[in-house]
Amino acid sequence: MKNNYVAKLLFLAGLVFTSMAYSQSNLLSSEHGRTIQNYLNQNKEKFNLSVSDIADLAINQEVFSKSTKVTHVYVSQQYQGIPVFNAISSVAVKNNAVFYYANNFVDNLNQRVSTTTPQITAEEAIIRASSELNLGALQNLELLEKTNNKYVFSKAAISKSNIPVQLVYFKNELGSLVLSWDLSIQALNGRNWYSVRIDAVTGNLIDETDWIVACNFDDPNHQNHGHAGAAYAPKEANFTLFKEAVSVSDGAQYNVFALPIESPNHGSRTLLVEPANTQASPYGWHDTNGVAGPEFTITRGNNVWAMEDRAGTDVIGYSPDGTETLNFDFPLNLNQQPEGYEDVSITNLFYINNVMHDIWYQYGFDEPSGNFQSNNYGNGGLGNDFVYADAQDGNGSDGSLNNAFFGTPPEGNNPGMTMFLWSPPGAGTLQNLVTVNNGSFAGSYGAVNPAAGNGSNLPGIGTTPVTADVQLVNDGSMSPTLGCNPVADLTGKIAIIRRGTCTFVEKIQNAQNAGAVAVIVVNHNNPDNDPNYTEYVNMSGETTPPLAIPSVFMNNTNGEALIAAMQNETVNVTLQGPSPYFIDGSLDNMIVAHEYGHGISNRLTGGAFQANCLTNATQMGEGWSDWFALMITLTAEEDYVAGRGMVTYSPGQPVDGIGIRNAKYATDFSVNGFTYGDTNSERSISQPHGIGFIWGTMLYDLTAAYVEKYGFDADIYNGTGGNNKVMQLVIDALKLQPCNPDFIEARDAILAADNATTGGADQCLIWEVFANRGLGLNASGGSKASRTDQVQDFSMPDDTDPTLQNCTSLSVDQYDQSNLIKVYPNPTYNDIYIKTNTSLGPVTITITDINGRQVFSKQADLYGTVTVPMQNLTSGMYILNISGKSVSTNHKIIKN
C-alpha cells in the first residue's frame, strides 16, 4: 500500500482545532461540580480565595481513573465568562467528596482586571503574531467558525493547521490580569508550534511558548562522555525477564531492538510476532476502523504513522511495506549511512511508539485521559490524534543533528515526533576502540582516536581494523616503558607505551622505527579512570619520516590492567577506528521513549484539553520523559547504586557512559549528588533539561526504593512488582497535580496518589526518597516565574504525623539541615547500609534488640556507604544507633 501525500494534506486541511471541538460546562451543572463548589465555599480562606474568585468556574474535563477510583475534574477559573489563562485546578473526587485539591486559581480577580473589552480583533491578533514571529505574509485569512469569544481561522499560508483564537486573561509579571487573545500557529517549518498571547488592548505579544519540545542534545550540559568501564558484551533481549504483551492475531512481525534493550550497543534485534497488546490495541497496530483486518500494510496504524523525512519538508515520506503478511523483517548493516537501512529505522520507530502507547495504557494513559489514537473505539476522548513520527529527518536549512522534537497539541489534534541523525563519532571522543581478543582481560575498552587535525600530527585508526599481538616497549632507559629513546624490535606488534617525559610524536616515531603496526598510549597521569582526553588530540611535532602507524589513547585503569595481563599470556588486540557513519536516533529506544514521554506528561497535566501546563520556570517535563525511558528499559539486573547513563548510543559513548545529562541516574551520591537546591544554579544546571534531570533523579531513587521493597516484575504490562507500582503511582500523580506544578506540588501529588491507592502504605518511603534529595517537609518552591528561589530541606514529617500512620518506620533521620543519613533497605532480609554524602567523622554504630540487649557494635568513619551485617540476627525489630561528635541518631530497623 502506498503512502498518500494528498491524504495527509487533506487531513491537515480538515483539522478543526480542539478548542472548538469541546465545550466547557458550568461548575454547578454536574454533581461533581456541585461537590467541588461546596468544598471551595467552605475552604476558600485556606487557599486565599474570595467569593468572587470562585464565583465563575467551569469544568474543562472529567476523567475517571480505574486505579485510584477517583474522578479527576479539571476546573477553569473565569472572570465574567472569560477564562484566566492556565488558572486550572485539578480536583479529585472520590465517594462524592473532594479527595484531593491542587489549587491553581488566581486570587483577588476583581483587583487584577482592568478591562473586559478588547480594542483589537481576533483577526488583528493573528496579524500581530505573524509579524512578531516572522512567519511571512498572510494570504486569504478567513473566519471559519465562531462561538462566543472563541474563533477558528484558516491557515492563511502561515500555519499547517487552522488557527484557533480565544479571549483570555493573562497574568503578567506584575500580577495584573491582561485581557489577551490566546492563539496557536503551527509554523510551516515544522520546528515550531507557537502558543502566544497578544494584548487585546495594545496588540503587543506578551507571552509565547512552543508546543514542540526540542530536546537540544547539543546543549553544553549534554556534552558529557562516559568512562571506559569493564569489558562489555552485548546481550540478547531476555523475554523471560520482559514478557511480551498479549498478542493480537494479525500475523504481524517486526525485527526490532526489542525492549528492554536500549540500542544496538546493548544487544541484538529480535523478531517479534504479534506484539500488540489486546487491551490497548485490540485490533493490532495497523488498524484504524475497529474491524478485524489491517487497513495499512505500511508502518501506519491507529497509534502512529512512521515515515522518513530526510528532505525535511514535513510531508508524507516513505514508509516500509510489510505486504499483506505484515512482515517487517528487514536486513540491517550498520556499516553504512542510515539511509541504507531506513526500513529497519522506521520499523523500530513504529515499534517503540506503539509499545509506549500499549505499556502506559495499562497505567492510565488511555482514551479518556487523552492518549494518542486515530480511533478511540468508543472508549471516550476525541480520537483523531495518532502520532506522526518522522525518521532520519533533515528539517531546517542547515539540516538538524543530535536532536529530537515532540509537539503536543490539545486532545483531538495530532502530535508530531521528529527523530534526527547524530554526528559520526569524532576525534577526542571516548569510544570502544580497543578489543582484547583473548585471555583474562578479553573484552572491549574505551579509548580515544586522535585523528589528524586540531594541531595533531597523530594519525588515528581508519576504517580498516588493525589486529596484532601487543608488546610493551623497552627503550633501555631508567623508564623503559615511556619509549622516549629508540626501542627494541616491535615488528608486527601493537606497541604499548606509557605516557610521560617526551612528546607523543617522539614515542610513536620510535615505535614506528622499531616495526610496530600501531600504538596504544596509556595515560598514567590520570589514575582515576577519567582522563582529560582533549590533551591527546592537540599534540604537534615534526617527525622524520612522517608518522604512518595509527595510535589510540587509553586511560590508566584499563591500560595498566592490559599490561598486567600481558605478563603471563600472549594478548591479541584489535584496534577499530570510529565509524564514519552518522548514527540514527530512531534506533536509540531511550530517545524515542523520551520524546513520547513529553506527550504523556503534557496530556495528563491539567487535563488533555490543555497544552500549556508545563511552562513554568521549574517545570520538570524532561525529568518525566527520562524516567519513562528508564522504566521501559529496566531489568532485574539494574544497579541503582552505580546507576545508568541517559542515552549513550547516539552520542557515541560506551554503554557505561555518563549519557547526556549532568550525571548518571544513580542513588549513590558520589555518582549523582544533585539535590533540589541545585535547581537554582543557572551556571551548572540548564533550563529545562537540567532542572528536569534533578526531578528525574528523584523519580529514579523512588523506583529503586519501590523495587527494593516490592521486588521487580518483568511483566511490564500486568506485573505487581515495585516497578509496576511506581509506574502506576507516577501516572496517577500526573493526573492529580495542578497546571504548571512545581517540585513541591508534584511531590504532593505522588503522596496523594499513594493515599488514593493504598491508603498511605508508602508515605514513609516516598517522604524518605524526596527528603533525601532536599525535597523535604519544609522545602519551598518559590515563585513559579523564577528558577532561582527554590529552598531545599531534608526534614521528614514527625512520625506522629497522622498521614504516616499506615506506613512502616522511617529510615531517614534529619540530624542537621545540611547533612543527611540514609539507612536502607528497611525492612531488610540481610545487611543494611548507612549512606551519607557528607563526612561525619568517627562514629560508633550499635544495634539493640527490643529487650535492650546490644547485639552489634562497630567503629567506622561515616562517609559514603557503611555496611552493617544483620543476616545472623533473628526476625524482629531493632534499634540502630549512630553516635559521633557531629551526629547522634536512632533508627528503627525491621529484620524480616
UniProtKB/TrEMBL annotation:
Residues 471-562 form the PA domain. Residues 823-894 form the Secretion system C-terminal sorting domain. Pfam families: FTP (PF07504), PA (PF02225), Peptidase_M36 (PF02128), Por_Secre_tail (PF18962). It is found in: Secreted. Residues 68-105 form the FTP domain. Its main location: secreted. SUPFAM superfamilies: Metalloproteases ('zincins'), catalytic domain, PA domain. Residues 1-21 form the signal peptide. It comes from the Bacteria. The keyword Kinase does not apply. Keywords: Hydrolase, Metal-binding, Metalloprotease, Protease, Secreted, Signal, Zinc, Zymogen. Belongs to the peptidase M36 family. This is T9SS-dependent M36 family metallopeptidase. It comes from Bizionia sediminis.
